[in-house]
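explain this chain.
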Amino acid sequence: MPAFNEAENLPTLLTRLLPQLAALSDRCEVVIVDDGSTDATAAAVAPWLRQGGVRYLRLSRNFGKEHALTAGIDHAVGEVVVLMDADLQHPVEIIAKMVEAWRGGADMVCAARTSRADEGLAKRVGTRLFYWIVNRKGQVQIPVDAGDFRLMDRCVVDALKSLPERNRFMKGLYAWVGFRTEIIDYLPAERQAGQSSFSLGRLVRLALTGVTAFSNVPLRLWSALGAVIAVGAIGFGALIVVEHFIQGHDVPGWATLVTSLMFFSGVQLLSIGILGEYVGRIFDEVKQRPIYLVASEQGTGLNHSTEMPLS
């Protein structure tokens, strides 16, 4: 459970969550990953650490949700691992349906939202565009509207832990590892307190990470555009030659020349920018820096037991 400034939501969530987990298994734990919170998140969690089965993992700074999820996956020791947000938008009652599907043979169970009516028009259009790009002739097909709220068998968790990339786009990694996956529908609840830390800028950056990590469509589209422009330029040049011999040119086409120069300059700069996104990802991978750093860990989980708990 990644948490960033969720001091107001965590007590309510834990009050609802722990009885649900206890009803499913007597071997369970909750791993809260504090992704550099600046509010009273630590104080809000402190009373729960006195009882067994709640662990508090504080990262050294804010690394982002994708890295906080990775930290939780790395530290969870359960045979079954459930990922969920700490903002009360993921209904805890859905976990029972996930466990039932897992017992029926599913290795991974994703919760896909049934509606985006609560989001703005720009975000809905951007989301549709993102899934169209990333799933168009991509290496893997990412389920539409299936987020981080999901259950994973230990085999899926171990597969995710073996992936070394630094630029983490978890939705793509879930799909890339494969395994038998089932999707269940849910409607997210309203956020009861606080504000989402995912601004439009952060969402755009996350989308760019997803596109560049799991799709070559931008490069292919720009290659196709370059070919079209080249063919058009050849045709335009031929037209000018023919027109010169038929009608002649009294006045040179200054406007055409300047417009064409500005257009092709813009295309070149945009092409370099797209290529730079991919080169930048390569640069990040080559540096081999840790995905996250743990500042402290508190609480008692169930990893001291020989049995594997439900995380």
The first strand starts at residue 2 and ends at 3. Confidence is low (pLDDT under 50) at residues 304-309. The chain has ten helices and eight strands. The CA atoms of residues 28 and 310 lie 4 Å apart.
